[in-house]
Write a structure and sequence with these properties.
The chain is mainly alpha-helical. About 80% of the residues lie in helices and about 0% in strands.
């Protein structure tokens, strides 16, 4: 989402409010943009953790599949918990 899109969305939310200045718009845009960048970075870090594919391996295909699902679920939970605590 570009800064122009963010400004447009802010305008839709605020409406015709003469108390809102261009400086206020830009401050809001900067805050939102920084927040989106931060969240994107955290999501990428979480996905990188999940993509490592660490886990228990087994030569039996069904046991291996069960282990992989369990391990990926735990990694996803851990990654989500990291995002929730930030």
């Amino acid at each position: 989402m570009s800064k122009a899109d963010i400004i447009s969305n802010i305008d839709k939310i605020i409406g015709d409010n003469s108390e809102v200045t261009d400086d206020t718009h830009m401050d809001l845009v900067d805050e939102i943009s920084d927040y989106v960048d931060k969240v994107n970075k955290e999501l990428i870090e979480a996905l990188e953790l999940i993509s490592e594919g660490k886990g228990s391996y087994d030569t039996d295909p069904l046991k291996h599949c069960g282990n992989a699902v369990r391990d990926m679920t735990e990694l996803a939970k851990k990654a989500l918990e990291q995002l929730k605590t930030k």
